[in-house]
Amino acid sequence: MKNQVDYSLYLVTDSTEAILGSRDLVEVVEQALLGGVTIVQYRDKSSDTGALISTAKRLHEKCKQHNIPLLINDRVDVALAVGCEGVHLGQDDMNIVEARKILGDDKIIGATVSSLDESRIAVERGADYLGIGTLYATNTKKNIKDIIGVNGIRKILRFLDAGDDASQKIKTVCIGGVNASNLQRVVHQLCAPRPNTPKPKTIDGVAVVSAIVGSPDPKTASANLQRLLASPPPFKATSSEPHFWFEKEEDEIKALMTASTKATKRVHEKSPLSHNMTNLVVQNFAANVALAIGASPIMANYGDEAIDLSKLGGGLVVNMGTVTPDGLSNYAKAITAYNAAGGPIVFDPVGAGATAIRREATSFLMRSGYFDLIKGNEREILAVARASGFTLHDNSQQRGVDSGDSLFSLEQRAYIVSSLAARERNVVLMTGATDVISDGTRMYAISNGHKYLGLITGSGCTLGTTLSAYLAANPEDKLHAAVAGILHFEIAAQHAATRDDVKGPGTFVPAFLDELYSRGLEIVEDRGDWTALQKIECIKNIPDAKLLEEIP
Ligand SMILES: Nc1ncnc2c1ncn2[C@@H]1O[C@H](COP(=O)(O)OP(=O)(O)OP(=O)(O)O)[C@@H](O)[C@H]1O
Ligand SMILES: Cc1ncsc1CCO
Hints:
Keywords: ATP-binding, Kinase, Magnesium, Metal-binding, Nucleotide-binding, Thiamine biosynthesis, Transferase. This protein has two domains: 2-233, Aldolase class I (TIM Barrel); 254-538, UDP-N-acetylmuramoyl-L-alanine:D-glutamate ligase (3-Layer(aba) Sandwich). Helix content is 45%, strand content 14%. The protein has 21 helices and 19 strands. The strands form three sheets. The protein has a nine-stranded mixed beta sheet with strand order 10-9-11-12-13-15-16-17-18, with helices on both faces. Strands 1-2-3-4-5-6-7-8 form an eight-stranded parallel beta barrel, surrounded by six helices. The protein has a two-stranded antiparallel sheet with strand order 14-19.
């Protein structure tokens, strides 16, 4: 019986005022059952035993009517008293072996784990499933130590895959901050293909708390999460399934140019908010670039403010150019808010590989949530690839925040960028004289721009600002949106640099702002055409060089 349990939409209850409010928990759970949750865990850390048993009995009645198992968090005695289907034990709760002796083999015993060691021990002690987390920080769970992100969960899944039969067969659910706006990408990221693993262990379910219990309509919220679980995510094929939609490269480029024109028009129509949490060097320049391309900038570094800002339909840039401990916790809050609202986030890991602090900051931010687009120069993207779990066969240490000469060929860069995008299930852009961008499947090299962009500070940062607005205004295809933003930015730079009044990097900056503005207007008013100026190449063949290896 317990082998048939469906862990896919796993409801964990919460009776706190902040989440349940004044509603009756049993009624909320009944609604969730009607909406389609597949298993329920009753979690209540504050009620006394009598109240726990009484609520658990009522919950069990409802669960039985729907043929759904009920587990009790922490309290084996309550599970016994109620006769429900099992328990879920945290690291500080009763040992699994003891619980098994009391409950017997037929009951379900789950365990919370957040490390390889805890997973190994839980399997050895005979847990039926693992609740792996914390995935993302939530308002109820802020203990940073336990936040392991998608990568931490992937590591545990791999570890289980490499273990004995019990390890391979154990069921898994992820927990922490899963909601309707991130559920598909979390599952999608956790199911990313792995080299030499034809059928990798994937997650069996997602545990949800606030997105159901805190919803004013738990039935609809659960049904919506079920629908999201059942439908394919809005992503295209992955890099393990090469998929090109155009037989001829020129057709692909033509489609890209049509999409770019549309994307620029949309930025002007919508004037999306570009919320910048950026470094101290570029604040003013970034705000001016946002205005010049038709977006609405706001420089807002207070993390809690993102809860409101994220609901305004804009995009967020997290740029760690002048990172501080305070900054990091503010970025994490904003990432949580934008992920919850579903707004795009551009991550600019400035100087990512330069110091130990920046390497740790990169890894912390990658654990804090999902980035729709990660952009950086070559060395920064290499550092991000390491933080994502790749080993790179390159020992170069980043020197400053600006990119130096390229370490790799164009094809090698495309390989790195597309591998990272496939693993993160997002878009990755590596800037330089030639930019390389990929969503894990499609790969483009863009050679527009001008060398003056490399001679002023903040060209990469303000490109990030530009991309946040392009992604916000064009959510249906992030790769196309980003290409459009890059073209707008770089073709404007070409125009500016070749003007008679521009004598060098100093006079280039104001001319660049003027040209960003005029190029946008030309497109909007159907006076301009970038087709003749674009220098885009589709990259179809990447080397099978062992440049990157996923950490086993
Ligand atoms: N030599 C060049 N020729 C053409 N375009 C360039 C050149 N160098 C940089 N760029 C363009 O400048 C922008 C920023 O890229 P770059 O790699 O210099 O970013 P970065 O090092 O992160 O910059 P920063 O740290 O100053 O913000 C991109 O649009 C890129 O294409
Ligand atoms: C120069 C510099 N230092 C930290 S951020 C920054 C802006 C360019 O990335």
